[in-house]
Amino acid sequence: MALPVASNHGDIDESLVPGTVHLVDLEHTMVTRHAKDQRDIVLVPTPSADPEDPLNWTPRRKYMALTCALLYTWFNGMALSVVYSVLVPLSEALSVTEGDLNAGTGYMFLLLGWGLLFWQPFALQYGKRLTYLVSLLALIAVTVWGPYARGNGQWIANRVLTGFFAAPIEALPETSIADLFFAHERATYMGWYAFTLAGSNFFAPVICGFINDGVGYGWVFYFQAIFCAATWIFLFFFMEETNYDRRTVGIVAETSDQAIETNPDAEKNKEATADSADPERLSSPERLPVVSTKTFLQKMSIMDRPRPFMMHYRAWQSLKLLSWPCVFYSGFSYGTYLIYFNILNATASIILGGPPYNFRPSLVGLSYISCVIGVSAASAFTGVFSDRFIIRLARKNNGVSEPEHRLWLFTVSTLVIPASLILWGVGAAHEVHWFGLVVAMGTTAFANTMGVTLSVSYLIDTYRDISGDALTTCIIIRNTMSFAIGYGITPWLENLGYQNCFISVAFVGLGICSVYLVMIKWGKTFREMKRVSYWREVKKRIDLGLVH
User: Fold this and answer.
1) Integer CA distances (angstroms), 465 to 30, 266, 548, in order
2) Which tens digit of pLDDT belongs to each residue from 141-152?
3) Based on the number of CB atoms within 10 Å of its own CB, is 91 exposed (0-12), middle (13-18) or buried (19 or more)?
4) Where are the beta strands (DSSP E) in 388-464?
5) What stretch of H or E contains 22?
6) Predicted confidence band at 101 (pLDDT cuts at 50, 70, 90)?
7) CB 527 within 8 A of CB 18
């Protein structure tokens, strides 16, 4: 049985539970847009008839926008990860203890989260393109300062500023992906984002170790600044604005006339007219010729169209969303998996660089190739496979997709995390062969990347129309947790030792990661609790032109 569908772009059915969508048109009776390659897949959200709607862009235009966002993520992420394989030499060169270096990383993660209270409203107010460019330019300057930040005070200041200026990496690319792609394909591109986010964090130590051994610790920072500068130039000339003031939410019914109007060529529209006689044959945007009405200079404009000033409102709304159970769970889940990433990075150089392994920084960096392999596998699993998985479950559920369907995939990471941590910590305590530790690094990276993709995808699936602000809330929770572990990991290890520390972490992790079972059971109940509040907020945003 089909869920209710709005009759026009101004209607909102407040009886619908946020996140519950009729994704598969099993009976071919829904008079709305469908995907071109799978004719029973409903396009969620329904795109407008405007060729400048990012949902209507040609594949080439979409992929260029996606490429720009991923390049920003990759090189921004590398700049954030320069210290992991060179902790020991960097400690000596900057006169900062390893504990203070890790504490600085904790402060950086804190600002990566809380800095979004400024950057995300700024991006939605003045444009994502402007935010990407300003953020990256400032990050270049702070990165160049890195090798001169001697002493604990300067190092902490450098990490704080790095975290603030790099903060858009945590939420802006996900928002851009939500601008460009539909519900049935979104996780695939979230998987690509997760690969660049986590992959860059793990790839940076690979090259930074060799850079340190070859030309010194200073160039560990300089090379990242050069990479970021080249990326900035590419973004300046090729990145388009994806902010679009949408007047529609969810699935909107289309008439045959509306389907025909989107194609200006009457002669070529005969087939579309015939198709439109059947509801399921309404043409999708991908089948219709979509020609941009903007010139190249208009596309390259730095400033977005003017809007009512709402930065303060968006920042406050992000804090209010802390009380929404599904938003809080997404941040908590994301933060849980990030903690294991931080523990790995904080201990890799210490464990592999010390006896009995005595790896040089270059070899410590080389061990991170295992992490890149793990990230690649997890990105495919939680991306392409995840989208196919939810479509399969929707078909079994009378075509209706629930956000909690995707959470079943957490079963894999919940089992992988404790096994990886025990192999890493207990293995190091008993001086197992270095290959065992490298395997633990790869499987930890695999689980970490799963946490990135599934947590963010669940949030956007649930509250797509306010996801820009909800992502800020999610990252604040995530990075506050990360700050706590970054500040305490060194004394934790010193007081408990590798074996006891990682055994405790493993079993705590098993318990915490299992919370996904609670959400599978009661997630829809939690979404129903905030149904009225959600649709009230969406209505307000439509009236103000703030739905993207």
Assistant:
1) 22, 34, 7
2) 999 998 898 888
3) middle
4) 400-401
5) strand 21-22
6) confident
7) yes
